[in-house]
Amino acid sequence: ALFAGRTILASSISKSYTQEISQKCQTISSSIMSPKGKKPFLVGFLANDDPAAESYANWTKKTCEEMGFEYQLRRVQNKDFLEEKIIEANNDDAVDGIMIYFPVFGDAQDQYLKQVISLEKDVEGLNHTYYQNMYHNIRYLDEQKTKKSIVPCTPLAIIKILEYLKIYNPLLPVGNRLYGKKAIIINRSEIVGRPLAALMANDGCVVYSVDVHNIQKFTRGEGLKFSKHHVEDLGSNTPELLKQLSLDADIVITGVPTDNYKYPTENIKEGATCINFSFHKNFTEDVKSKAGLYVPSTGKVTICMLLRNMLRLIENKYQNTSS
Ligand code: NAD
Fold first, then answer.
1. Which of 2, 52, 255, 305 could form an SS bridge with 153, CB 3.0 to 4.6 Å?
2. Separation of alpha carbons 268 and 141, rounded Å
3. How confident is the model at residue 32 (pLDDT cuts 50, 70, 90)?
4. Angle 171-176-182 from CA coordinates, rounded to 5°
5. Is position 179 within any domain?
6. CA-to-CA distance for 167 and 164, rounded, in angstroms?
7. φ and ψ of 208, to 5 deg
8. CA–centroid distance, residue 275 to ligand 1 (Å)
């Protein structure tokens, strides 16, 4: 009989984290880290009238409450006041985490807003310090290695999915667990594709990073000789080069934000793992005639990682005051 791959849903993957997160949330709420015994408190800022952002906000609230967190949505009618509102929340000791539903202005000003959230409350991990640590493969914020750096939550979710699928080999040392694997990622945005390529390459993977224009290779070099990834240009994004690299890839990750884009099934290596993080279906119905494992969406895991990041921020804050 012909082999057909398995679909693994984000909801099943997130279940393996919900218990760990709610338990830790409870421990923190009833510990010295929460002096008044209050629940970790996340504030989301919504300054657009995008129905997608609205539903994401509702969904964050639901997940927060299910897992023992407190959540509040703060709507800001006039975008120009958003910065002040964020600063207020930065200065409010009752608030443990802050996130913004993007796009707000839809241009470079959004980059500025990301940096307004204080480092200590940035649950999505969008601060420049966290990005720089990630790109440089620096895993702690302090020299004593007591405070772990925060990883942006969407690429982190995909890393956790790869761990769940056992693509990360736990028999290899931490930091090299993707050694010998090759991946292709169709998306090189600064919010998902590029950080993801860097994270995977830092863990030992050879990554072909594809955007509309060209293809790059992210790697730590032969025998993992570099301590962080290097980037090489491989040339324009042509169907020939794409097919050649794709047929060599154990992992295919797509994030193309359009309905009409479909990853060619004939380019998938037999038994490869296929993951789509775009809100649009980037694989066709027959993907499992080639893929061994197929993950059609990742959003539910992303929200878990957001809450996991928040617990880490609280622990880091406690490290600050206790040392
Ligand atoms: P973006 O528009 O910033 O980036 C899109 C990337 O895809 C770019 O690098 C672009 O060059 C590349 N691309 C577009 N068409 C291509 C093609 N035909 N071939 C090769 N590359 C192509 O978008 P984004 O912010 O990275 O978001 C991408 C998708 O992921 C969206 O659907 C978004 O909603 C979704 N998303 C999901 C999550 C989640 O948690 N699941 C989080 C963030 C974004």
1. 305
2. 39
3. confident
4. 100
5. yes
6. 8
7. -95, 115
8. 13
Q: Which residue has the tokens 């061994």?
A: 292
Q: What is the pLDDT of residue 1?
A: 63
What spacing in Å lies between the alpha carbon of 196 and ligand 1's midpoint?
12
Residue 153 near residue 310, CB atoms below 8 Å: no
Full residue range of the structural domain in which residue 91 is found: 29-120
Q: How far is the CA of 172 from the centre of ligand 1 (A)?
A: 31
Task: Evaluate whether 46 touches 52 at the Cβ level (below 8 Å).
Answer: no
Please tell me whether residues 108 and 205 are part of one structural domain. Answer: no
Query: What are the DSSP E strand ranges found in the chain?
Result: 6-7, 41-46, 70-75, 97-100, 182-186, 206-210, 214-219, 230-236, 251-254, 273-276, 293-295
Same domain, 115 and 159: no
- Mark whether 153 is an active-site residue: yes
Residue nearest to atom 41 of ligand 1 (CA): 299
Q: Which atom of ligand 1 is nearest to the CA of 297?
A: 41
- Residue 23: inside a domain: no
Average pLDDT over every residue of 177-194: 96
CATH code of residue 159: 3.40.50.720
pLDDT at res. 208: 98
In a domain, 61, yes or no: yes
Ligand 1 pocket (Cβ < 6 Å) reads: 154, 186-189, 191-193, 210-212, 255-257, 261, 277-280, 298-299, 302
Using the predicted structure, report yes or no on whether residue 34 has a pLDDT greater than 80: no
Closest CA to 71 of 113, 40, 28: 40
Q: Residue 279 C-alpha to ligand 1 middle, in angstroms?
A: 9
| Cα–Cα distance for residue pair 252/61, rounded to 1 Å | 31
Model confidence at 321, pLDDT cuts 50, 70, 90, reads low
Tally of CA atoms within 13 A in the half-sphere of 31 that contains its CB: 12
Residue owning the nearest CA to atom 33 of ligand 1: 278
